[in-house]
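Reviewer 2 asked us to include a model.

Predict the structure of this chain.
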Amino acid sequence: MTHPGFRPIKIFTPSDASAGNTNAQNLTVKEVVARLPGERFHVTMLQCSGHPDPRLAARPNTRLVKWRKHGNTVRLLRHCLLPPPDIYFFPRRGPLDRFFFEARDRMSLRTALVTYIVMEMDATTGTGLIARSIIEGDVVVGNSNYVSETIRRMFRVHAPVIHDGIDPHYFFPPEQRPSKPAPVVLYAGSFQSRKRVEIVIEQAARLPHLQFRLAGKGETEFSCRELAAQRCCQNISFLGHLSPQQLGNEMRRADIFFFPSIQEGNPQVLLQAAACGLPSIAMELYRSDYVIDGRTAFLARSDSDLAPSLDRLLRDEALRRSFAVAAVSHAGNFDWDEIAQQWAAIFEEAAARRRAILQQKAS
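Predicted model (structure tokens):
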């Protein structure tokens, strides 16, 4: 309940409210904003294409700024300055973020910076505007325990952990996994060098009696298709970009989720697979909190572990069932409603902290 004269906290985020944008970072923001109490938080977001997420379109105290062909940075900067919001949430690496940082510094804006880091920080990732957003952030949050550990190690900045959640409308286990002549192996994610989809294709070439289904698009897709053709892989299906509903359906039809990416934060796709009761094979490097090694997934310490882990799950149906049950149970720990409450507390804390800093400077 709000008291007379209460003013909602104003949040600006350079995130896309479009319904069709399934980028992991934008999905996170949409899920959080949709659950923030409208009477306590006024939120301004972008709308880059198509129709907005219907939950955001119907949410009170929400402004969606449509993306245009030209002049977006200047137009959006006005929303950050006239008047400045209380919170700038989830800065990225774009020109708008750069201009905002400069304006905030030179004009001593009242705007608190809430930084969300979704990638492990190292000499490659922790540079430029990302580094600045950590150093200058009023509150810095990591999306996994390991990501927060890398922030502390590299920048000596305390970063509480807030995980992403799972949407049970799309990601849930099947009543019974469909029987088929041989297990189906699924990869889902973008096609980028760090994702190493080529390793999935090599496994498909090694195991021609299995079906491998690859969901996603990206810069390495053409070379991956060429590699599949060179290796005569008739057992690979390239599925292209999938909506959350389509991805959930694919996960419920598959038997193993194979994800050899080497540079991540806490990939949502591992949580989505877990919620669908899908045993996973991934790399141990980024220590995802969404899987438990040996209980819901196998985490490979090196590339030499990938094929043996896959073979073990393929030949042991009882183990796959055991992993599936444990994965669904573990996924239940990541509830968007509870996570949105954590973000609401962070926003209130950041706004109060920024006000205190500016009052101290003025006195």
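The chain has a mean pLDDT of 93. The chain has two domains: 9-164+335-362, 184-331. We have added this to the supplementary material.
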